[in-house]
TrEMBL record:
Protein name: Catalase
Coiled-coil ranges (or none): none
Transmembrane stretches, start-end: none
InterPro entries to which the protein is assigned, alphabetical: Catalase (IPR018028), Catalase_AS (IPR024708), Catalase_clade1/3 (IPR024711), Catalase_core (IPR011614), Catalase_haem_BS (IPR002226), Catalase_immune_responsive (IPR010582), Catalase_sf (IPR020835)
Entry annotation: catalytic residues: 65, 138
Residues covered by the Catalase core domain: 18-401
BP-aspect Gene Ontology terms: hydrogen peroxide catabolic process; response to hydrogen peroxide; seed germination
Keyword Iron among record annotations: yes
E.C. designation(s): 1.11.1.6
Residues that coordinate or bind heme: 348
Catalysed reaction equations from the record: 2 H2O2 = O2 + 2 H2O
Family: Belongs to the catalase family.
Length: 475
């Protein structure tokens, strides 16, 4: 018997029950008892192991985006952007890269309905030859706040009341009345697209400004956008009640069934491009996540397409244990100085070390599919097989060398240390433009949703007046 052959996998199942350590189980129905009626003996190791595993089946759900569905497929480059980036997976049209995608709602729990008014997460992990690239975005192209310092309070306000465990508009409107930068995001959330029909019929956006950098070191700011080939569709209030009432997992089911039926969802990827040299030319700050870049000035350039053609094999392994992180990038793609993005660079791997354990990147769904090597090993649940004798650097016994240098942005950062707001807040212009672009019936539905939210009896006269003042400045 080769003791190293059968790694833990259902591919190596024995035809009979065993304990976790492989011993045959001859009775999986009855506990070991003294006599037919009990009591049970503690020495029934199989029973104890079975219960102990069951007792620990749940891991902490994500602190946000707990409810989600995932699927696998590929990304294919359709347009050459090798003049903009040295990213290997974007090197030429026709190049395909495997992906896993997770769509999610944001606020409510792991089992909550998928028909709630909430942004939707749109996270894509590209398994490239130069490591994974995670594009962890949403369906809306902007965000509520622009400084990560506000994020935990924002989530607390949006989540259920800590006393009653009920989501309440007075808490949400109280919090955001202090933050008028959220108005633009609310023109998406309270619009018809605030409840997408399902995960297949929604846009995706990287939201932040990222940097593409080519071999010569020239950096360009970009924004990423996904557009579904089957179009964007939403549920109006009465439809959402009907769909959600009949099936609280309708979007997960729609994704799973579509893929199983061979009706593969597809999105086109576009980028908007801005030369960083021009970043001061506008009445908004291009790194501000509460702003979009106008498409007449920054047109959408096609880059590729993503097709989801494979359902996951196991929800726990490929959804619950899946870990996306905006800091996971590849050569040719870099962050920007966007403060919110900078906060996210810290937060995701931090929560994942807590949620999944320090070796979460060894889990199959998260591990790179290319060769990789470093000495960050050991810790809880390290299951990587290693047989090297040298686990330090540098060493004359270890031939591993540095990778080839790749370009990163060279722009000089300077300024004094401070805690402050950005110069060009311009909180009202873009939400106004968006509201005015709605047809009159869409505007009416938008206003009706606001009237309903502001009618919460615990919204005070002061809070209501602030919101009316904000929306008056927008319109
Ligand atoms: C400073 C601001 C933010 C912080 C601190 C933050 C933090 C988090 C945390 C802790 C998680 C749970 C991750 C996990 O347990 O695996 C999460 C999930 C997620 N966040 Fe954020 N977030 C922020 C802003 C944003 C923004 C602006 C977007 C959209 C561009 C976004 C999109 C997502 C998505 C899609 C997920 C779910 C990923 C998945 O499917 O596993 N977040 N966020």
């Amino acid at each position: 018997m080769d003791p190293y052959k059968n790694r833990p996998s259902s591919a190596f199942n024995s035809p009979f029950w065993t304990t976790n350590s492989g011993a045959p189980v001859w009775n999986n129905n009855s506990s070991l008892t003294v006599g037919a009626r009990g009591p049970i003996l503690l020495e029934d190791y199989h029973l104890v192991e079975k219960l102990a595993n069951f007792d620990r089946e749940r891991i902490p759900e994500r602190v946000v985006h707990a409810r989600g569905a995932s699927a696998k497929g590929f990304f294919e480059v359709t347009h050459d952007i090798s003049h903009l980036t040295c990213a290997d997976f974007l090197r030429a049209p026709g190049v395909q890269t495997p992906v896993i995608v997770r769509f999610s709602t944001v606020i409510h729990e792991r089992g909550s309905p998928e028909t709630l008014r909430d942004p939707r997460g749109f996270a894509v992990k590209f398994y490239t030859r130069e490591g994974n690239f995670d594009l962890v975005g949403n369906n809306f192209p902007v965000f509520f706040v622009r400084d990560g310092m506000k994020f935990p309070d924002m989530v607390h306000a949006l989540k259920p009341n800590p006393k009653s465990h009920i989501q309440e508009n007075w808490r949400i409107l109280d919090f955001f009345s202090h933050h008028p930068e959220s108005l633009h995001m609310f023109t998406f959330l309270f619009d018809d697209i605030g409840v997408p029909q399902d995960y297949r019929h929604m846009d995706g956006s990287g939201v932040h400004t990222f940097t593409l950098i080519n071999k010569a070191g020239k950096a360009q700011y970009v924004k990423f956008h996904w557009k579904p080939t089957c179009g964007v569709k939403n549920l109006l209030e009465d439809e959402a009640i009907r769909v959600g009432g009949a099936n609280h997992s309708h979007a997960t089911q729609d994704l799973y069934n579509s893929i199983a039926a061979g009706n593969y969802p597809e999105w086109k990827l576009f980028i908007q491009i801005m030369d960083p040299v021009h970043e001061d030319r506008f009445d908004f700050d291009p790194l501000d996540v509460t702003k979009t870049w106008p498409e007449d000035t920054f047109p959408l350039h096609p880059v590729g397409r993503m097709v989801l053609n494979k359902n996951i094999d196991n929800f726990f392994a490929e959804n619950e244990q899946l870990a996306f992180c905006p800091s996971i990038i590849v050569p040719g793609i870099y962050y920007s100085d966007d403060k919110l993005l900078q906060t996210r660079i810290f937060s995701y791997s931090d929560t994942q070390r807590h949620r999944l354990g320090p070796n979460y990147l060894q889990l199959p769904a998260n591990a790179p599919k290319c060769t990789h090597h470093n000495n960050h090993h050991e810790g809880f649940m390290n299951f990587m097989h290693r047989d090297e004798e040298v686990n330090y650097f540098p060493s004359r016994f270890d031939p591993v060398r540095h990778a080839e240098k790749y370009p990163i942005p060279t722009a000089i950062c300077n300024g004094k240390r401070e805690k402050c707001i950005i110069e060009k807040e311009n909180n009202f212009k873009q939400p106004g433009e968006r509201y005015r672009s709605f047809t009159p019936d869409r505007q009416e539905r938008f206003i009706k949703r606001w009237i309903e939210a502001l009618s919460d009896p615990r919204v005070t006269y002061e809070i209501r007046s602030i919101w009316i003042s904000y929306w008056s400045q927008v319109a």
